[in-house]
Amino acid sequence: MGEPRTEVLSARTGTPPEDTRARMLDVRGLRQVYAAQDRHVEALHDLTFDVRAGELVTLVGPSGCGKTTLLRLLAGLLRPTSGDVRVEGSEVNGPPPGTAVVFQEYGRSLLPWMSVAANVGLPLRYKRKLGRRHRAELVARSLADVDLADVGDAYPWQLSGGMQQRVAIARALAYEPRLLLMDEPFAAVDAQTRADLEDLIRSIWRSTGVTVLFITHDIDEAVYLGERVIVLSSSPTVVQDDVTVDLPADRDQLDTRALTRFVELRRYVYAEIRTAKNGPALQGAR
Question: What's the pTM?
Answer without folding.
Answer: 0.88
